[in-house]
Specification:
Layout (H helix, E strand, L loop, with lengths): L4 E8 H8 L10 E8 L6 E4 H7 L3 E8 L5 E7 L2 E5 L2 E5 L1 E4 L4 E3 L1 H7 L1 E4 L4 E4 L16 H28 L3 H24 L4
Parallel strand pairs: 2-9, 3-8
Antiparallel strand pairs: 1-2, 1-6, 3-9, 4-5, 5-8, 6-7, 10-11
Length: 200
């Protein structure tokens, strides 16, 4: 499976607060529409410096982040950003990298109750059109996130195995090879984040 993309609208959280308080009008709320890569290996929303500047986001801190290749980098952490995807939305802080693609990580995905459909290769509601929020602890721990990745990996593996069996029933040799290739690629891609988290 290739990359899964999602069109998002991002808005400055402080501007929305001032709008609700009546201090500014709707046209004064800074926002930008972007195409983000859905990345279940990322924890939160990751934006680049250009998007951060367009939104006028305040920087609340600096943290060390580990990139996909294992390299560590110092990145800025912004004030809350409001993320809109279709009829769903969530507020979260964003990590800012100097450049690169926008990444939609596991925390905003969790709160919007959406998952990646590995067969259709698109973002879908975890419970259809219903939005079901989980009761979460006051603070995320590494164990929480590792467990979530393990559950997601198991779920995707089961989905892909079912798809693989259905594909084999068609009988054509070329289709069998393609089914195996798609299954192997997707399974290893999802387990990549799990392996880095120490899940077995």
């Amino acid at each position: 499976m290739g990359n899964v993309f999602a069109e998002l609208t991002l808005k400055n959280g402080s501007d929305l607060t001032r709008l609700n308080d009546g201090h500014i009008s709707d046209k004064d709320v800074r926002s930008v529409t972007v195409t983000a890569v859905v990345d279940t290996g990322a924890l939160t929303l990751v934006i680049n410096e250009a998007v951060c500047q367009k939104l006028g986001l305040a920087i609340e801190g600096i943290r060390t982040a580990t990139l996909a290749g294992g390299n560590k980098i110092e990145c800025k952490i912004t004030e809350p950003v409001k993320i809109y995807w279709k009829d769903r939305d969530v507020s979260c802080q964003a990590a800012v990298l100097p450049e690169g693609e926008i990444l939609l990580g596991v925390i905003p995905l969790e709160f919007m109750d959406v998952i990646v459909d590995p067969v259709a290769e698109q973002l879908v509601g975890a419970h259809g059109d219903r939005i079901i929020s989980r009761v979460l602890r006051n603070k995320f721990t590494p164990e929480d996130l590792t467990q979530r990745r393990c559950l997601q990996a198991n779920k995707v593996a089961k989905e892909r195995k079912g798809f693989f069996r259905r594909f084999l029933r068609k009988g054509a040799k070329a289709q069998r090879r393609e089914g195996l290739k798609r299954f192997t690629t997707e399974f290893h891609r999802v387990l990549h984040g799990v392996t880095r988290s120490g899940c077995s």
